[in-house]
Design goal:
The complex is a heterodimer of chains A (540) and B (529). With 540 residues, chain A is mainly alpha-helical. Chain A has helices spanning 6-23, 31-58, 93-110, 117-136, 140-149, 151-161, 166-194, 212-220, 224-241, 250-257, 260-285, 287-292, 294-313, 318-342, 350-388, 399-402, 404-418, 424-437, 446-473, 489-507, 510-520, and strands at residues 70-78, 81-88. Chain A is 70% helix and 3% strand. Chain A is globular, with a radius of gyration of 22 Å. The two termini of chain A are 26 Å apart. Chain B contains 21 helices and two strands. Chain B is globular, with a radius of gyration of 23 Å. The chains are: A mainly alpha (540), B mainly alpha (529).
């Protein structure tokens, strides 16, 4: 193996090794022993992912098909199907990969589990395998393997270390996600059967390999009904993961019952796998069906934004409130997806494509920003829950008085979450709304109308988040909490890192937007033959 | 490669019977061994395994002779011997291989288990005879021969099921199995007599040297041309034969015996029944369907049977609290999955180019070239993956039983803390049974779904049914996972498996992961490249 291929292989295999090491540690040690091992083992991927970012920056943020960013090897071939071991990063996956490695380390650092600690930390490392693999793999077979691998550890994390209703929440999460993924598997097998060049690669950028990208759309035209079924099959998997309304009902349970670390990873990374999948797989492979369904996508997005905000407002449980705010925030991602889908037709004009690119950039930015901000919020819920053993908003109030540092972080993340300029969430929402607003075809106004309605969601979001600050930090102090200790080091480091990152990415959006171009420039090329631009060959 | 060995008359024909003969011989050897050294409890088991290895080796010359032919019970690729009673073809040999591997691994599970028997040699001899019957069934090509082989298989199975003769449940299971088996065998015989009455022959294939006497399939086709009503009678005969073979392979609605018999039978016998006996019955089912009846008549009933079987198995498994019964119902569900491949095989042949839409003519060559890769391999591949994951799960069940003396799922509580290795392995096998990667079961499901979807739009519903079922199945497999990992242990006492179970677990685990990682080489075993 050449050294060039090392970073990507390392990211996929190192956590496997780390998982095995931690699970095989002797049984009777103190929890901190396992935490130390897991922490130490989770740090190298952080550096490797940052090294990849640096390489990517060096290559001008737009590098494609270069050695360090592509690993390709045949795995096995059956009949005409060749399954490959293909890893790839670009501007879409790189931020999420870096986020995954960083958040995993922070979560392990933050956790103070005492019961069955060895398994706890090992499972987070196994989870990292699934997450990194999902973002790296570009052969559907491999992608599916990692996609499913990420399911099982989260089931255990919720089921073993979760709250009082943990078993219900865990199996609900598992079954919901599984329904989607098996449907996706079925859809993909069908697609493989109808395309002329048998492959499961969904990336054009592997040198010398054909991919599903250009050939699927013409091949499925003969079966419009089944093609739409396949679209729904794939969409179901991702929509449940995102989760978009109306497939979101597992989320409040899972997020609320999971231990803090689990909630952080769920909200920070696992939800992003859905949006990533839609951008990476669904839109490129089935552009025509995506275009047909653009208004359905928009409807789900807008309902998600508004409904999520209103339901969050009604919550008494702080953690549930943040869980529902995720439904709301993921609605913005779906708006970007709907905008991108709206231009996947032959006559798309320049301004519309630009608008869609803006919205897509916003959606990807939102995935990243939500990963920083909501993770911070869940950590803060964990901090206060560890001290008070309640999450009931009516029990709090006035905590700003005696927990100044906590209150500072709380304000930072809440303001970031409601989209305050200067923090990462603002950039994302601004781009999504700006793009979505003008994503209409000439003469139509549905996206404009959708954006306006979703704007209502922003107002409600701001309202319930400000109200949350009021209920937690302001007002008279509940005497029971008079002697609460403020944040300690173990909690401070993750919060500080996340806070600084959300500030940096709020002030310097180009850091992320620059890298996205390598993905965005492909957006209009997903269309088959009659598309505005020649598909694969023209670009290379 | 010449066919000299098989073509030369007389004794050389016996080459075809080598696996069966080897198994019989080893069976007698084990019996004699026990007579000579009655105190020896371990060696009969190893000799039995050796017998299976030898029998597997005896399949190799057959494969070499046949070369790379598609795995179909086709007239064209069949080497018919013994006046049409036995046949050698790729399909039969593959299924024999599956039967033998399943049987060998079940023996592995029985190595120490048999110590509780008064005379384990007899048990192993019976296992060898039963395997020999199952292997014989895979190559039977005459209706009467099929009936005899089924009866041979059944009789040996009855004895094996009732081998715990001082346990009422075991005896009850044997009796139930016997009564049920006797009735369904009679029904099947009636169906065969109808076929004979119409076709005037019991040969599935044209016998060399007697070409003027048509085989069953051809005769029935001629009859159907002459008389319109013949089709109805053919369908009735098909249904009656399906009763007998459906019973043996545990398909709904002839599945009611499965949970009781599996539960009552000794654990290794359960493993054997759920793989080898089932595989043999399915092999002959496919052969009879394929050769005797027109494909467009049977693929839809089989598809419906498949959907019913998997649904019934899965739904009935949901409320189970006994892990053995749960795995028994799950084995019914897996029979249903395997039938998906059979239905796809029929449907694909019925209309091989059905995938081609009217506008996709330019794609024709590619699609046709691959049109049957998945369908040909579907049934044996799926059963082969099932061998390893099922055996692994049963080995864990056995290891837990050694300590807790219970098959109740509640007694798996906290297994992850008491025996982490066992719990993680069980998780792995259950993931495989549920078809979740990275496991053999995932590859099996992949092949099945590919075969079914490839058969064209009229089996898409079956694929969707399979998809819903595999989600349902997760729920009850997860009952065990929940108990092992989430529930609190009742005691902290560690429970490691004994050495023989460790060996079985290792074999099963390696098989389950290897089939996934080395799916390519694995598929070449089934003539798919």
């Amino acid at each position: 193996m050449s050294l060039e291929k090392l970073p990507l292989n390392f990211l996929v295999w190192w956590p496997v090794l780390a998982f095995l090491v931690v699970i095989c540690l002797p049984r009777d040690r103190a929890p901190s022993h396992y935490r130390g091992w897991a922490l130490a083992l989770s740090v190298p991927p952080v550096f490797v992912s940052l090294y990849l970012v640096a390489l990517f920056a060096q290559a001008g943020w737009g590098a494609k098909a270069g050695e360090p960013f592509t690993v390709f090897a045949p795995w096995f071939a059956v009949g005409q199907l060749s399954v490959t071991y293909a890893l790839f990063v670009d501007g879409l996956s790189l931020p999420l990969i870096a986020l995954t490695t960083v958040l995993t380390t922070l979560v392990i650092l933050y956790s103070n589990i005492t019961d069955r600690a060895r398994e706890y930390y090992a499972l987070f490392l196994l989870l990292e395998v699934g997450m990194l693999g999902t973002f790296l793999a570009v052969d559907f077979f491999l992608f599916y393997v990692y996609w499913e691998i990420s399911l099982v550890p989260m089931y255990f994390i919720i089921g073993i270390w979760g709250g009082s209703n943990r078993e219900y929440a865990a199996i609900k999460f598992f079954l919901y996600t599984l329904v989607g993924s098996v449907a996706m598997l079925l859809a993909f097998i069908w697609i493989y059967l109808v395309v002329p060049q048998k492959t499961l690669l969904f990336i054009n950028d592997i040198p010398g390999q054909t991919s599903l990208l250009a050939q699927t759309a013409p091949a499925v035209r003969a079966f419009p009904g089944l093609a739409l079924c396949a679209w729904w099959g794939i969409f179901l998997a991702f929509a449940i993961k995102v989760p978009t309304w109306p497939f979101h009902t597992w989320l409040p349970d899972a997020h609320t019952e999971a231990p803090t670390g689990g909630s952080v990873i769920l909200a920070g990374i696992l939800l992003k796998m859905g949006g990533y999948g839609i951008f990476r797989i669904l839109l490129p492979i089935l552009p025509e069906q995506s275009y047909q369904m653009r208004y359905v996508l928009l409807l789900m997005a807008v309902v998600g934004v508004v409904y999520g905000a209103f339901v969050a407002m009604a919550q008494q449980d702080l953690k549930k409130l943040i869980a529902y705010s995720s439904v709301n925030h993921m609605g913005y991602v779906m708006m970007g997806i709907a905008s991108a889908a709206a231009v996947l037709y032959p006559g798309a004009t320049g301004p519309q494509i630009e608008a869609a690119k803006t919205a897509t950039a916003g959606a990807i930015y939102q995935m990243f920003a939500h990963g920083l901000l909501t993770s911070g919020l869940f950590l803060l819920v964990g901090v206060i829950y560890d001290r008070t053993h309640t999450r009931d908003l009516q029990m709090f109030g006035g905590l700003g008085q005696n927990l100044p540092e906590y209150a500072g972080y709380f304000r930072l993340f809440v303001f970031g979450s409601l989209g305050l300029p200067g923090l990462a969430g603002f950039v994302a929402e601004f781009l999504v709304f700006m793009g979505c607003f003008s994503s209409d075809q000439p003469g139509e106004g549905i996206f404009r109308m959708g954006s306006v309605i979703a704007g209502l969601g922003i107002v409600v979001t701001a309202a319930f988040l400000l109200w949350t600050i009021q209920r937690v930090l302001l007002g008279p102090l509940n005497p029971r909490w008079a002697r609460l200790p403020d944040i300690e080091l173990r909690e401070r480091i993750p919060l500080l890192v996340l806070g600084v990152l959300s500030l940096v990415f709020g002030l310097l959006p180009n850091l992320l937007l620059g890298s996205m171009n390598s993905y965005l420039q492909d957006l209009p090329t997903y269309l088959p033959a009659e598309a505005t631009r020649p598909p694969i060959s023209g670009r290379r | 490669m010449s066919r000299n060995l098989l073509d030369s008359p007389g004794a050389a024909d016996m080459a075809l019977l080598l696996p069966e003969l080897a198994l019989m011989l080893f069976g007698c050897l084990v019996l004699l061994w026990e007579m000579a050294r009655p105190k020896d409890k371990v060696w009969p088991g190893w000799v039995t395994i050796l017998g299976h290895v030898v029998a597997l080796g005896c399949l190799v010359p057959g494969f070499n002779l046949l070369g790379k032919t598609p795995f179909l019970p086709d007239e064209a690729s069949a080497v018919v011997k013994f006046h049409g009673n036995l046949v050698a073809d790729g399909f039969g040999l593959t299924m024999k291989g599956v039967v033998l591997v399943g049987s060998m691994l079940a023996t592995l599970l029985a190595l120490r288990y048999s110590e509780r028997f008064k005379n384990p040699g007899e048990f192993f001899a019976m296992l060898l005879f039963a395997s020999s019957a199952a292997v014989l069934l895979c190559g039977a090509s005459d209706l009467l021969m099929i009936y005899l082989a089924v009866e041979f298989l059944s009789l040996a199975s009855y004895v094996l099921v009732g081998y715990l003769k001082f346990q009422p449940r075991s005896t009850e299971a044997a009796l139930k199995y016997f009564l049920y088996g006797a009735i369904t065998a009679a029904v099947m015989l009636y169906g065969m007599s109808l076929v004979y009455g119409m076709a005037g022959s019991t040969n599935l294939y044209t016998v060399p040297g007697e070409e003027n006497r048509p085989a069953v399939g051809g005769a029935l086709a001629q009859l159907a041309l002459q008389y319109e009503q013949a089709g109805g009678v053919v369908l009735v005969a098909l249904g009656l034969i399906a009763v007998g073979l459906g019973f043996k392979s545990g398909m709904a609605p002839f599945h009611q015996w499965v949970p009781d018999v599996y539960d009552g039978a000794p654990l290794p016998v359960m493993a054997w029944l759920s793989v080898s006996s089932k595989a043999a019955a399915m092999a002959v089912f496919v052969r009879v369907l394929w050769v005797v009846f027109p494909h467009d008549q049977w693929f839809l009933p089989v598809a419906v049977l498949s959907a019913i079987t998997m649904t019934v198995g899965n739904l009935a498994a949901l409320p189970q609290t006994n892990v053995k019964r749960m795995l028994a119902y799950s084995s019914i569900a897996h029979a249903g999955y395997a039938l998906m491949a059979v239905a796809a095989l029929g449907a694909g042949q019925f209309n091989p180019s059905v995938l081609l839409g009217p506008d996709a003519v330019q794609m024709k060559p590619t699609v046709q070239a691959t049109a049957s890769v998945w369908q040909h391999a579907g049934l044996p591949v799926y059963l082969a993956t099932y061998i390893f994951m099922n055996l692994g799960a049963l080995a864990v069940v056995m290891a837990v039983y050694q300590k807790t003396k219970s098959h109740s799922i509640n007694d798996y509580a906290g297994l992850a803390q008491r025996a982490p290795g066992l719990a993680w392995l069980m998780l792995f096998f259950l993931l495989s049974l549920a078809g979740i990667p990275p496991t053999a079961g995932f590859w099996g499901k992949f092949v099945l779904f590919a075969a079914t979807l490839e058969a064209g739009p009229h089996l898409v519903w079956l694929a969707i049914c399979g998809f819903l079922n595999s989600v349902v199945s997760v729920y009850y497999y997860w009952n065990v996972v929940r108990a092992m990992f989430i529930m609190k242990p009742v005691s902290q006492e560690a429970m490691g498996p004994t050495a023989d179970v460790r060996l079985t677990l290792a074999v099963a685990a390696v098989g389950t992961i290897a089939i996934f990682v080395l799916a390519g080489p694995f598929m070449t075993l089934f003539n798919v490249q």
